[in-house]
Design a protein that fits this description.
By secondary structure, this protein is an alpha+beta fold. The chain is built from 10 helices and 4 strands, in the order ααααααααβαββαβ. The two termini are about 15 Å apart.
Length: about 280
């Protein structure tokens, strides 16, 4: 059942990516990086179907990936790549083009492709493309994958600007890339709904008791030593809902006005008082 659930998640993600490409990006010549961006350029230059071009471009990437990295990509990666290629070409004739406004197309195209790719990654799949190319290139260069992805996508956007003779289209493509990347992270990590407090104080026990009594939340303490002063103290970690942030600040300040507090976003919390692990 877990495998079926993951394949269904990859399929839904692929469908959203195909909708974003067919309804917004491809009709408006927005080549937002990656293999789909190269396929969009080829579609307008030589008339190649975008889905078929995506598949053709991914075949050598998979061959190189197997050669350099071994058979670690698995069924989901192959499934995602082939399904996306088929979905893009099969759905294109039946789908409307809601807008020819380039800004709207770049925004909504980025939203759909970002949500789709996020679902694919969340369910342990891929659609091949530049993430695979970057992994292969890393075996030759040793450069960070994130940097390689940025360089590859940047090269595709630059090529699209030259091919379409439009700097504006390249800039809109960058907007799509940023939205896509942000939404991929949101889908995988979740929107921040909790806050983590790191509290350094001379009165950690009193603060921990006040948190338990005032918020019915727990805290974890571990020993630490200040580098400058050499003083040994305990650091408290407590995770609370957004609505409880102000109250926790008041509790800490009420016990120790000199406490050092670090507040950070938390995207997902699994365990008692929050979400169950799934």
């Amino acid at each position: 059942m877990k495998t079926v659930y993951e394949i269904a998640g990859v399929s839904l993600g692929v469908l959203l990516v195909a909708l974003g490409l067919d309804m917004f990006l491809i009709p408006n010549k927005i080549a937002a990086g990656g293999v789909s961006g190269i396929a969009t350029i080829l579609h307008y230059l030589v008339g190649a179907p975008v889905g078929a071009a995506i598949l053709a471009l991914n075949i050598p990437l998979f061959a190189m990936g197997i050669y350099r990295l071994g058979l670690r990509f698995g069924f989901r990666s192959l499934y995602g790549t082939i399904t996306l290629s088929l979905a893009v070409d099969l759905l294109a004739p039946a789908l409307p083009v809601p807008t020819n406004d380039i800004l709207l197309a770049s925004l909504f195209g980025g939203v759909l492709t970002g949500l789709g790719m996020g679902l694919v990654f969340r369910h342990r799949g891929t659609t091949g493309g530049t993430d695979l190319a970057a992994a292969v290139l890393r075996t030759y260069t040793g450069v960070n994958i994130g940097q390689l992805l940025f360089l590859v996508d940047g090269a595709v956007v630059l090529a699209a600007g030259v091919a379409f003779r439009s700097a504006e289209l390249a800039m809109y493509a960058l907007i799509t890339i940023f939205i896509t990347a942000w939404l991929i992270d949101v889908v995988q990590e979740g929107i921040s709904y909790a806050k983590a407090f790191l509290i350094i104080s001379e009165r950690p026990d009193e603060i921990a008791e006040a948190i338990l009594a005032g918020l019915d939340r727990g805290a974890t303490a571990w020993p630490a030593q200040g580098v400058y002063t050499g003083a040994r103290r305990e650091v408290l970690l407590s995770v609370v809902d957004r609505a409880e942030v102000t109250r926790l600040k008041e509790i800490v300040h009420g016990v120790d006005p000199r406490a050092f507090v670090i507040l950070a976003d938390v995207h997902e919390v699994l365990g008692e008082g929050f979400k169950e692990y799934k």
